[in-house]
Amino acid sequence: MTSKAIPTIKCRVVTHYLEEQSEPENQRYVFSYTITICNLGHGSAQLLKRHWQITDANGKTLIVDGEGVVGEQPSIAAHEEYTYTSGTIIETPLGVMQGHYVMVNEQGEHFKADIAPFRLSLPNILH
Predict the structure, then answer these.
(1) Does residue 51 surpass a pLDDT of 80?
(2) What is the pLDDT of residue 127?
(3) What's the predicted TM-score (pTM) here?
(4) What is the pLDDT of residues 19-41, one digit of tens each?
């Protein structure tokens, strides 16, 4: 495997607390997250699988593995982006998500694209 064959993938994340779907009195906090996957490499890459680790403020961790994202396994051309929005529910007003995508390049080589930890939090909960 040469390093040129593996596309460089970067992810940008924006999160939102969905107050209208949340029920704090029942320890139900709903968040949406919009992820933009940027292919900074020279070849295309297809997203095959996702792996998430979602941890709430109590230390409760949920692992989510699945095919693609939002029902798709997008192919992302070199210097292009793919954006999607999904959501999660945790039991506390603060949590963190992190994970990776399993992707395949044009040569059929599988690789991981890491998603750095990002915060799920109610607005103004942290100063």
Answers:
(1) yes
(2) 53
(3) 0.90
(4) 999 999 999 999 999 999 999 98
What is the distance between the alpha carbons of residues 50 and 113, in angstroms, rounded to a whole number?
10
pLDDT 10s digits, 63-74: 999 999 999 999
Residues of 59-91 as b/e, b for ≥16 C-beta within 10 angstroms?
eeeeeeeeebbeeeebebeeeeebebeeebbbe
3-state secondary structure the chain: CCHHHCCCEEEEEEEEECHHHCEHHHCEEEEEEEEEEEECCCCCEEEEEEEEEEEECCCCEEEEEEECECCECCEECCCCEEEEEEEEEECCCEEEEEEEEEEEECCCCEEEEEEEEEEEECCCCCC
- Tell me how far CA of residue 125 lies from CA of 23, 32, 45, 66, in angstroms: 16, 17, 38, 31
Please give the C-alpha separations between residue 102 and each of 9, 94, 106, in angstroms, as whole numbers: 11, 27, 14
Asked if 88 and 99 touch (Cβ cutoff 8 Å), the reply is: no
